[in-house]
User: Which sequence fits this backbone?
């Protein structure tokens, strides 16, 4: 291998590492903001990369990443959520909305309280 090829390969690996770090920080920020908005606790204060692929949206070639994270509505139960980024753009954010009532009036909830959960029974 030539020296130029090795340098090019090292630059590509460095760029990918920096881009992955930036995407992870963006994903973590989105999870933290959504956790505050929905009144749940983001567990471990981290996101975990689960899938990686390449997409070709209108903006051109982008790396698609899917992250998983854990949250709790009451501090006891551990629930899993996920989000996906194409480049640095959010594709989707998925909390387990079957246990989070997103229609609760946030003005009536003081900081540190848990959003009341409405369970959906199949018998209703």
Assistant:
């Amino acid at each position: 291998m030539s020296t130029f090829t090795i340098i090019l390969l090292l630059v590509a690996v460095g760029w990918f590492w920096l881009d992955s770090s930036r995407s992870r920080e963006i994903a973590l920020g989105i999870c933290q903001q959504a956790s505050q908005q929905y009144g749940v606790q983001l567990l471990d204060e981290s996101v975990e990369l689960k899938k990686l692929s390449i997409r070709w949206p209108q903006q051109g070639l982008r790396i698609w990443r899917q992250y998983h994270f854990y949250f709790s509505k009451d501090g006891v139960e551990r629930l899993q959520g996920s989000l996906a980024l194409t480049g640095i753009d959010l594709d989707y954010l998925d909390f387990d909305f079957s246990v989070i009532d997103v229609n609760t009036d946030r003005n009536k909830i003081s900081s540190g309280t848990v959003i009341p959960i409405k369970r959906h029974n199949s018998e209703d």
User: Anything to note?
Assistant: Residues 3-108 form one domain. The first helix runs from residue 3 to 38.
